[in-house]
Amino acid sequence: MSSITLDPVVATLEPTIVWAHFAALCAIPRPSKGEARVRDYLQSWAKARGLETMVDPIGNLIVRKPASPGRESVAGVVLQSHLDMVCQKNADTEHDFTRDAIVPVLRDGWLVAPGTTLGADNGVGVALILAVLEDKSLEHGPIEALFTVDEEAGMGGARGLGADSLRSRLMLNLDSEEWGEFYLGCAGGIDVNVHRPGKPEAANEGSVFIRIDVRGLRGGHSGLNIHEGRGNAVKLLVRVLRQLEARGECRLATLQGGTARNALPREASATLAIPADSMESMGAALTELQATLRRELAGIDEEVSVTLTPCEASAVMAKAEQSIWLAALHAGPYGVRRMSVQVPGVVETSNNLGIVALSPEEGRCNFMVRSLVDSAGIELADEIVSLFALTQTRAEQSGYYPGWRPNPASPLLAVCQAAYRNAFGADSKTQVIHAGLECGIIGGKYPDLDMVSFGPTIHGAHAPGETVEVASVERCWRLLKAILADIS
């Protein structure tokens, strides 16, 4: 533990007991499926304080803190957050998420990591739980801290959690991103993974290779921002390529876009072979297409850019394969399928085309479907599978997880609402979120578990420029202490 240097910007914020833990997390790389180092750090930290720890077979860490004196018989509470973070960076940012620390800066009351994701999702939740484990002055019943792994890449930790791992029947999930709101339900999800082998061909004689980049989009969380009409760099690039294809000879070599299934793709690039004498007209066509996209995305993603640069390559995709991929990706769904009738203003079903990687040898892509209605999400996933089946392309559903059904009559919710009212002199709000929380999966294993989720205000999760409001973290800390005291 002594090898970790706390970031001075974060370590000086209030409450220190929370921010010092977040600073430690920033120093430790924690991509999905690469949480071993941070888990080992936290387990060592807990053992040094005499706390009971357990790592289950899937890699989740459970830490238990005894009740405050005299409160041994009151209801125990699970405090739950995930250890991993979405690793996204801008193309011009040098950062290795498996090795480099996150370096936050403070801007007008918000913490941000320029050029990369910050990891406030869900690092702040982890830090709040660690503060509860550390603070000996708190009043509470038995505490179980559940730190799950692999949440961002498919809810792997929650899926693998044993049905006998938890003892308590109350749970506070600290993975929400809008202060002042208690979350009672969330969407479930399912992935569609597509794969098709390729047939490399040599480019025509007299061809030159160019690279086309679509950049400048805001990106964002595929659950929280999907309804805002933000551009998808992959979909936009495919549109550009189809228009270039219609103008004349244009052979696709590679197409890459998106780096996370649950993030809206901000950048995408393609390498093409074109006739050498068409370079000038191609540049003019891209300028015109860029202007069209900026008009369409005005007020949302008007900074979108479409650029051309010469490059080197050798083989191209077979022409038939190029046509299949461009047509299928163009037809593939993206965005909101249906708004909820039961929960007005909330997305019911949506889909994100999050990752595409095409080469002359093979092509792969991922669609992530979310829905508050499990059957509706499965149906949309089946539509995507059927679309690719038209060209004998293999598409498989995987990673299904159920949604979290709201319970407005939750006794735990009543306690949380009263604690909020007493602490802040105002009423809180309740919400159902289209993003995925682990509550649905955990609740399926523990049907009697009463769950509520809350957290600080986080903007831009899953994209570079992710920020967390410092003041809302302090309010979360006050509220968490008050809820635990009221339960006990």
Description of the structure:
This protein is 31% helix and 28% strand. It is an alpha+beta fold and 488 residues long. It folds into 2 domains: 8-187 and 403-487, Zn peptidases (Aminopeptidase, 3-Layer(aba) Sandwich); 190-401, Alpha-Beta Plaits (2-Layer Sandwich), CATH 3.30.70. Strands 9, 11, 13, 15, 16, 18, 19, 20 and 21 form a 9-stranded antiparallel sheet that branches. Strand 4 (105-107) and strand 5 (110-112) form a beta hairpin.
CATH-assigned fold name of the largest domain: Aminopeptidase
**Number of helical stretches of at least 4 residues:** 12
Unreliable spans:
none
Number of DSSP strand runs = 25
Helix content: 25-40%
Q: Write the CATH homologous superfamily of the largest domain.
A: Zn peptidases
How many domains comprise the coordinates?
2
Strand content: 25-35%
Structural class designation: alpha+beta
CATH structural architecture of the largest domain: 3-Layer(aba) Sandwich
Question: Quick gist of this model?
Answer:
With 488 residues, the chain is of the alpha+beta class. The chain contains 12 helices and 25 strands.
